[in-house]
């Protein structure tokens, strides 16, 4: 009887379409796993570019040094004119501002005998390749 069932099954298989489950190779699934779609990161929001500002400060006394440091701390480029000050007061202002420049990772450049350029960390300054002047400003200590 099992021979009869086997031959009937064979005849039935010849005239009927195979099931989809019979056509799927199970070992194929093990070799190639479907990759889940990854989420693509969206575009970053555009940074608003703030126009760079320059502040020119002419201190009248040592008490104006705080205004210089506050402007630098706000990320502004500061031009300091020390021409109308006594050399000792100008030296004290330069010392105070120099400490703030160090703490804020800013930079300081001497433009001429009585003018300083203070720039925050985000601003890069390049100078011409000419040799700097050998003249010492009045407010610098004599060596």
Automatic annotation (TrEMBL):
GO terms for biological process: division septum assembly; FtsZ-dependent cytokinesis. Keywords: Cell cycle, Cell division, Cytoplasm, Septation. InterPro entries: Cell_div_SepF, Cell_div_SepF/SepF-rel, SepF-like_sf. The keyword Transmembrane does not apply. It is found in: Cytoplasm. GO terms for cellular component: cytoplasm. The keyword Oxidoreductase does not apply. It holds the Pfam family SepF. Cell division protein that is part of the divisome complex and is recruited early to the Z-ring. Probably stimulates Z-ring formation, perhaps through the cross-linking of FtsZ protofilaments. Its function overlaps with FtsA. Homodimer. Interacts with FtsZ. Belongs to the SepF family. This is Cell division protein SepF. It comes from Allisonella histaminiformans. The gene is sepF.
């Amino acid at each position: 009887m099992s021979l009869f069932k086997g031959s009937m099954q064979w005849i039935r298989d010849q005239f009927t379409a195979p099931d989809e489950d019979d056509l799927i190779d199970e070992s194929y699934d093990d070799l190639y796993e479907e990759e889940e779609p990854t989420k693509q990161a969206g575009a970053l929001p555009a940074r608003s570019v703030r126009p760079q500002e320059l502040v020119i400060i002419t201190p009248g006394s040592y008490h104006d040094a705080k205004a210089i440091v506050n402007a630098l701390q706000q990320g502004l480029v500061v031009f300091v004119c020390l021409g109308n000050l006594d050399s000792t007061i100008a030296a004290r202002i330069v010392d105070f501002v120099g400490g703030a420049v160090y703490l804020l990772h800013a930079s300081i450049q001497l433009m001429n005998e009585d003018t300083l350029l203070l720039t925050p960390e985000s601003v890069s300054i390049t100078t011409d390749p000419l040799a700097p002047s050998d003249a010492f400003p009045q407010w610098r200590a004599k060596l």
